[in-house]
Specification:
alpha+beta, elongated
């Protein structure tokens, strides 16, 4: 199984969120995805800085979704 990390930045001040962003590289386990989700969320909050985080009451939420690969049907030559 592989998992994709999706993050969403929200403002509690206006009760709204930006569009979700999905990272393109899959993780081999949900554990690794979750740890990196916390890491990337923390890095982004630090990058934004205390003034904007405090004034807009920003927060980041994330989830790790399993990659579902649909089986391919074989092509039949005619």
């Amino acid at each position: 199984m592989e998992f994709l990390l999706t993050v969403v930045m929200c403002s509690a001040q206006v009760n709204a969120c930006l569009e979700p962003f999905q990272f393109p590289d899959p993780y081999p386990s949900i554990y690794e995805c979750m740890v990196d989700g916390y890491k990337k969320s923390g890095e982004k909050i630090i990058e934004i800085g205390p003034d904007d985080v405090n004034s807009h009451r920003l927060y980041i939420k994330f989830e790790c979704n399993e990659v579902i690969i649909m089986p391919q049907t074989p092509k039949v030559e005619t």
